[in-house]
Design a protein that fits this description.
Structural class: mainly beta
Keywords: Plasmid
Number of helices: 4
InterPro entries: Cupin_2, QDO-like, RmlC-like_jellyroll, RmlC_Cupin_sf
CATH class of one domain: Mainly Beta
Shape: globular
CATH superfamily of one domain: Jelly Rolls
Largest sheet: 7 strands, antiparallel
Organism: Streptantibioticus cattleyicolor (strain ATCC 35852 / DSM 46488 / JCM 4925 / NBRC 14057 / NRRL 8057)
Distance between the termini: 48 Å
Protein name: Cupin type-2 domain-containing protein
Strand order of the largest sheet: 8-5-10-3-2-1-11
Length: 185
């Protein structure tokens, strides 16, 4: 049996609104949002972990690069469970690297390092974890994108209006870099 909770973000969620409560989430039943062509499912967030980490999945089709961005106070992990993702990363000294990650591969992005990614195969799935002194950023997905009750990918990409990107940095430790250029492939 799974319980539903009301949270400050949603009228119904399988994730309790406060820390200190054990809980279980059945496959796909976390808090879901569509952003670009992807489905993001949050299983644990700042509310449950006292802002120490989050745990989410991102599923999507082969597609365009996700815009360059960084997290000034948050470390991010990419673990590919299905398909392939090309991860672009720049360290704090300005050295850029890219790596094709396939099922079972892991990528780590330290705080304050520009990064972006692109799904390279249809129906790719990535497990993400973010942690750091800046808290967590998982609610960014549904605030920039669109909360959804659907289990699948969006039928049409959810592309936020340009002005919506400007509202994100102060609230979610995500800073977009619209003029950033990758010198790698």
């Amino acid at each position: 049996m799974t319980f539903e909770y009301a949270t400050r973000y949603r009228s119904a969620s399988r994730i309790p609104a406060e820390p200190g409560r054990p809980y279980f989430v059945e496959k796909g039943e976390g808090d879901r949002a569509h952003l670009f062509g992807d489905l993001i499912t949050i299983y644990a967030g700042g509310e449950q972990t006292e802002n120490t980490f989050n745990f989410f999945t991102c599923e999507g089709p082969k597609g365009d690069i996700i815009p360059a961005h960084l997290h000034p106070e948050t470390y991010e992990v990419f673990y590919v469970t299905q398909g392939a993702v090309r991860l672009f990363v720049e360290d704090t000294a300005g050295e850029q690297r890219e790596k094709l990650l396939t099922a079972g591969d892991f990528g780590f992005v330290p705080k304050n390092c520009p990064h972006a990614y692109r799904m390279e195969r249809h129906h790719t799935q990535v497990v993400g974890v973010a942690a750091g002194p800046g808290g967590t950023f998982e609610r960014f997905f549904e605030n920039l994108g669109a909360p959804t009750g659907e289990l699948g990918l969006p039928s049409e990409p959810v592309v936020p209006a340009p002005e919506k990107f400007r509202t994100v940095p102060g609230r979610y430790d995500v800073r977009f870099l619209p003029d950033h250029r990758w010198r790698t492939g």
